[in-house]
Amino acid sequence: MIRVFGTAFNLSQVVAFVIAVALTLALFAFMKWTHTGRSCGPTAQDHDAATLMGIDTDRVYRLTFAIGIACVGAAGVLVSPLYAVYPTAGLQFVLLAYVVVVLGGLATWWGRCWAA
Question: Which residues contact 61 (CB under 8 A, 6 or more apart)?
């Protein structure tokens, strides 16, 4: 237990939170400041226009799928010490994730972070 200003925090929760924030910032930096990350937006907006601009859209699709799978794996690893693990354990988070996407909007990073 970690106590800060009279509030007790579980060490595994603090570690999971810090790692999640670090991974979120790393993903944001990748999407904002790399050529590959910046090519994800145009590919999502218009596949044909992105192809005409010279973006390898198949590569972008493979990369974004791999990033999504990595995020789900990291979330599973970070959440597993905090909750019981069973085959349908993730269903309790599906509605929350849906609400975050709807409230935050599909277009902005900061909107999704604010809604979470």
Answer: 43
Reduce the DSSP state of residue 11 to 3 states and report it. Answer: helix
Report the C-alpha gap between 46 and 59 in whole angstroms.
15
CB contact set of 22 (below 8 Å; sequence gap of 6+) = none
Q: Encode the chain (116 residues) as per-residue pLDDT tens digits.
A: 888 888 888 999 999 999 999 999 999 999 989 999 899 888 988 999 999 999 999 999 999 999 999 998 998 899 888 888 888 887 888 888 777 777 766 666 665 565 55
Cross-strand partners of 3: 8
- Is 3 in a helix, a strand, or coil? strand
d(CA 20, CA 65): 19
